[in-house]
Amino acid sequence: MSGIVRYFAKAIVGRYTSKLTVSSLSSVSRSVSTGVQLCSPRVQQPAPDFRGTAVVNQEFKEISLADYKGKYLVLFFYPLDFTFVCPTEIIAFSERIQDFKAINTEIVGVSTDSHFSHLGWINTPRKAGGLGPITYPLLSDFNKKIARDYDVLLENAGVALRGLFIINPKGVLVQITVNDLPVGRSVDETLRLIKAFQFVEKHGE
């Protein structure tokens, strides 16, 4: 009898786990076999690894989290290319890139668009709704893995919420902000947070 009980218990757990791995709400527990993060990203924990094709200086280039070791990284997600709010904040970050570089910080923007779409948007003049030249990489997350790993993907829509993640030089998450689709992020506030983290690193709390 105990063997039968164990059999059905195992079957029930298996069905439940299977549902979690395909559910859009399964941010807490996911399948190890798929290579997906086991839990939502958390402050003080290592940032989920990422890699993919980005547009850098209007050319395609493979980038990864490892490329930014030893620096602060602002990784921000936006929903789609060729939308209204997105160019405003993307351009704002681009115009302040030297302020970020001055404090040992790089920026990467991510959406679920293809790298071809990114390039098309960058090559479109700003007066026509495009970005124009951008001073940091725009990374393609076409298979949506990065957005899933960072727990910002809206599964049904196939786009990412406006998540912003600050990763320290050791690859550890120190700040997470996730906004709903209509609202962008503040460049000044992002700079303030990084400077505050760096001050604490140097001087203590």
From TrEMBL:
**Residues that span the membrane, as ranges:** none
* Recorded GO CC terms: cytosol; mitochondrion
- Is Oxidoreductase there in the keyword field? yes
Q: Provide the reaction this enzyme catalyses.
A: a hydroperoxide + [thioredoxin]-dithiol = an alcohol + [thioredoxin]-disulfide + H2O
What Pfam family does this protein match (any one)? AhpC-TSA
- Gene Ontology biological process terms in this record: cell redox homeostasis; cellular response to stress; determination of adult lifespan; hydrogen peroxide catabolic process; response to oxidative stress
Q: Which UniProt keywords apply?
A: Antioxidant, Disulfide bond, Oxidoreductase, Peroxidase, Redox-active center
Matching entries from InterPro entries are given as:
AhpC/TSA, Peroxiredoxin, Peroxiredoxin_AhpC-typ, Thioredoxin-like_sf, Thioredoxin_domain
Signal sequence, renumbered to the chain: none
Q: What is its EC number?
A: 1.11.1.24
Q: Where is the active site?
A: 86 (cysteine sulfenic acid (-soh) intermediate)
PROSITE patterns tied to this protein: THIOREDOXIN_2
**Per its record, what are the GO molecular function terms?**
thioredoxin peroxidase activity
Q: Where is the Thioredoxin domain?
A: 41-199
The family annotation for this protein states: Belongs to the peroxiredoxin family. AhpC/Prx1 subfamily.
The protein in question is named: thioredoxin-dependent peroxiredoxin
Q: Which organism is it from?
A: Coptotermes formosanus
